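Researcher: Please predict.
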Amino acid sequence: MLLFSVIASAVAPGLALLTFFYLKDKYDAEPIHMVVRIFLLGLLVVIPVIIIQRGLTLGLGTHPFVQSFFISSGVEELLKWLVLYFIIYNHVEFDEPYDGIVYAVTISLGFATVENFMYAWYSQASIGTMFIRALLPVSGHALFGVIMGYYFGLARFRKVNNTKRYLVYSLLIPWLFHGIYDLILTTVTDYWVWLIVPLMVLLWYGGMDKVIRANNRSPLRFQKREEEVNT
């Protein structure tokens, strides 16, 4: 019974958010087998993240800034970015800008689900604590994924010079927000909620704007309109 409760409270938020962003794809939903594959890679990427973070902690120490921006957010966002770049970026199924968001959110939530499960299992967290984690770290990972995926989509499909800069943005901007998020939680003890809530509101507002923008840039949008007119 305890194991079931831990699994349910740890897994449900990630699956709910994944479903939410998956259904936001207005024109051509991604194959389920691809989404499952990337989600599983998100689960597995936890292993090298833990190994690298432990090694960096031994070498760089535990200063909050170093921990937040380099050991925590730096390693996590870099490894997720590398998986997306080498497996998804040139994949045939990556055929519209919003797909970048789908796959980046998927790998982020795969990672967040394992992280959430480990926290729930080892800390014996209450339902209230897991609810807060669903609102903060789990949704935070999803929104960092939205940012990463949005700029992946721009790099892949925007027909302008120097699109490579969008690949840089796809790593640096989620890394920056993730680092700020972690730094607040590790350095502010009494009034952290007054900083985290505005940050999460900003991330949700910006994330949903990027969802709309990515869908509006889909080359399939005009094809769908033509089909509707012809019918």
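Model: Residues 2-220 form one domain.
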